[in-house]
Design a protein that fits this description.
Protein name: Oligosaccharide flippase family protein
Shape: globular
Structural class: mainly alpha
Subcellular location: Cell membrane
Order of helices and strands: HHHHHHHHHHHHHHHHHH
Largest sheet: none
Membrane topology: Multi-pass membrane protein
Number of helices: 18
Main location: membrane
Number of strands: 0
Keywords: Cell membrane, Membrane, Transmembrane, Transmembrane helix
Length: 463
């Protein structure tokens, strides 16, 4: 476990922050699902998907480039050059976006109120997107974690104030999320003393070209990632309406929670691989982490499956109950999505960003084709199944394309965990009417998680 000490330490720090922040937001969703109609929640969800599409485009994925080059910088001046030029790039692109939306508002194609709300939410998220990459670059993951927690608390507090008390409805959600990200940004700026890393003298066309050359291949990758993960919402809204999208969005909450936790793992994994890629035995290290990650992932997803009925029967509003049947499909898609991030982290460490782009584009195309082809025949199942199939294909392709550098293999514990996960899938679909068995499954899932991961948990909590 000594080889993975930094990875475990970083993952522990990020996981605590993620668990708290996502937990707060998840509890908030339970209440918001009761306060807002499926149409309003579905519309807000679509608005957020447009923002997640624009983030990599406006930033040109500069944050990833700043992180990667800063990690290998030999002096603080060199690091400052990357951070400054990345910040300038993001700011200039946001100004251009503001100009475009102002023109659209001026010619009455968009309402001024909608444009201002959209820009407020987009701007705060865009700088949060970059500032979090900045924190990774300077290895201040403690601030990264705290800022996420503070942001979640502010979003929850403002949501209650604006939606429940002031009755702002969807406007209230927009304001709440915008203020939450803005507070997090200010915390990062002052805690990490951003001004010490921003030096206008270091603005350089050469550095800008270097950043863009690295990050530009990531843009189609990120757009394709958007298609893989959230374009389903667009197709659903167009084909089935905002209410159906609201149901699908709630069905995604449990898988998304799992995805967020392993998304944080991928952040520390990228950092770890970037530092260890020069090791002679990095392939052995990568395989060790791959198997441990998969074991934790499968047993965690088994646990989530076992408690899903509690959320849909007793916590979410009854109007979202029909979304429960999609959870196992989306949860399985999350497993392969985590593999995608894991293999992608190896590619980033090898500085082969175009490899990630190619595989993600293929997956995105497959996702879109299956979804559009089946949405009118099997409804929301089309969105869930298309996501699962696309994630499987993309993960397999990434693993295959890495075979020239490292061969990944599954050990006996990993294979056993697939059998455990299979049991919970079968139990979910065929034994839901046996309420006693459902409660027994929660106990079984907890025992399986502890029994399979006891060594990892011991090492994890010693850090």
């Amino acid at each position: 476990m000594s080889k993975t000490s930094n990875l475990v330490k970083n993952t522990l720090m990020l996981s605590i922050g993620t668990a708290l922040s996502k937990g707060i937001q998840f509890i908030l969703v339970i209440f918001v699902s009761r306060w807002l109609s499926t149409e309003i929640y579905g519309t807000f969800d679509v608005l957020c998907t447009y923002i997640t599409l624009l983030l990599p485009i406006l930033s040109i994925s500069t944050g990833e480039a700043v992180f990667r080059f800063s990690v290998s910088s030999k002096t603080q001046k060199e690091q400052s050059g990357y951070i400054t030029n990345g910040f300038v790039l993001v700011t200039c692109n946001l100004i251009i976006c503001i100009g475009v939306l102002a023109v659209l508002s001026g010619v009455k194609l968009l309402s001024a109120k909608l444009v201002l709300q959209f820009l407020f939410l987009l701007g705060t998220q865009l700088f949060n997107y970059y500032l979090q990459a900045f924190l990774r670059a300077i290895k201040r993951l403690n601030i990264y974690t705290i800022s996420n927690i503070i942001s979640a608390f502010m979003i929850a507090f403002c949501s209650v104030l604006f939606i429940r008390v002031l009755q702002f409805r969807m406007d209230g959600l927009i304001y709440a999320y915008s203020i939450g990200y803005m507070v997090a940004n200010l915390l990062i700026i002052f805690s990490a003393r951003l001004w010490n890393y921003i030096t206008l003298k270091t603005i350089s066309r050469k550095i800008v070209k270097q950043l863009v050359h690295y990050s530009l291949p990531l843009v189609p990758n990120d757009i394709s990632w958007w298609i893989l993960n959230v374009s389903d919402r667009q197709v659903i809204s167009i084909a089935l309406g905002a209410a159906a999208n609201g149901i699908y969005a709630i069905a995604n909450k449990l898988p998304a929670l799992c995805n967020s936790i392993f998304g944080m793992f991928s952040v520390s994994w990228q950092q770890s691989m970037a530092e260890k890629i020069e090791m002679e035995n990095w392939q052995e290290y990568a395989n060790q982490v791959y198997n441990q990650m998969t074991v934790v992932l499968l047993t965690l997803c088994s646990g989530i499956l076992s408690v899903t009925f509690i959320f849909f029967n007793y916590m979410f509003d009854i109007k979202y109950y029909s979304g429960m049947v999609y959870v196992p499909i989306l949860l399985t898609a999350t497993i392969f999505s985590s593999w995608m991030l894991f293999f992608g982290g190896v590619q980033i460490a090898l500085k082969k960003t175009s490899e990630n782009g190619v595989t993600t584009v293929i997956g995105a195309i497959i996702n879109l084709i299956i979804n559009i082809a089946l949405i009118h025949f099997i409804g929301l199942y089309a969105a869930a199944i298309s996501t699962l199939v696309a994630n499987i294909i993309t993960a397999v392709l990434r693993r295959h394309r890495l075979k020239w550098f490292v061969r990944f293999w599954s050990d006996s514990k990993t294979r056993s965990c697939w059998i455990i996960y299979g049991y919970f899938i079968v139990s979910f679909y065929f034994f839901q009417e046996y309420i006693v068995l459902e409660w027994i499954n929660i106990l079984l899932a907890g025992i399986a998680f502890i029994a399979v991961n006891h060594q990892f948990l011991q090492a994890f909590f010693r850090r």
